[in-house]
Amino acid sequence: MNQSVAQSTNQPTNRLSLNQQTTKRWSLPEVLDGARRHGLESVGLWREPVAEVGLDKARRLVEESGLRVSSLCRGGFLTASDERSRRLALDDNRRAIDEAATLGAPCLVMVVGGLPEEARTDLAGARERVTSAIAELAPYAAGRGVQIALEPLHPMFCADRAVLSTLRQALDLAERYPAGVVGVVVDTYHLWWDPDLFTQIERAAGRIASFQICDWLTPIPADALIGRGMPGDGHIDFRPIVEAVLATGYTGDIEVEIFNQEVWDADPDEVVGLMVERCQPLLRPPAADGR
Q1: Among residues 138, 156, 158, which one has the least CA distance to residue 148?
Q2: Which domain CATH number covers 224?
Q3: pLDDT tens-digit profile of 207-234?
Q4: Reported pTM
Q5: What is the spatial distance between Cα 62 and Cα 132, in angstroms, rounded to a whole number?
């Protein structure tokens, strides 16, 4: 890595990762360049922007940048009830696992899917189909050296995006497999509200595949999906969550993943600069920032 932009390992920014969605206007080369300019050492990638430049070129760009890939988003959507759609979803997830392996991503983040139109009230059945699909995909992921990272989403997304809503649910499924094969995502936006959160984070020791942070804003926009905020702009008390995750021994990167139209419309360089400014204190020992 170019030492003029790299941070030493004792700097707070060395654990921060820029998720591509936070600077949605930037192409993959721009994301990599921007992360380096701001002293970051890792990026979280998404399949669609990677596909725009081509997988092999994306791999070369990442290698040339000297950055780590903290995760690849996303796999999942495994709840279809008809056999043809189920097979197509499994095939797509195998491709996603291959892409993660090619990019050097340690994990593939999985949003498992909601209730399909043809079975729009069958919540129990959807969860069973997720369980069955992970059983098929886990051996393939293990063979490629990629950890499946199950991401529980806030319950308001249960019908359309993820029938896993709590960290407890995600762990109940993940614990059927070795920790290096199936892990979980701790995303503050989706989990901050859960009264059982800290017990489940402790339980997740050794199995946290990805840690993502952004804030919960109110009022919730009409499109709830893009209601995430920059840390410090909303209602989440990040310090206890960060400390709990790090106390498990988690040594991976900490991604800032924001879906927000105002953030997307802003100057991406200013967004990343503010991200670093807001998140640095969270990664220092409490005595270092007076908390």
Answers
A1: 138
A2: 3.20.20.150
A3: 999 999 999 999 999 999 999 999 999 9
A4: 0.93
A5: 34
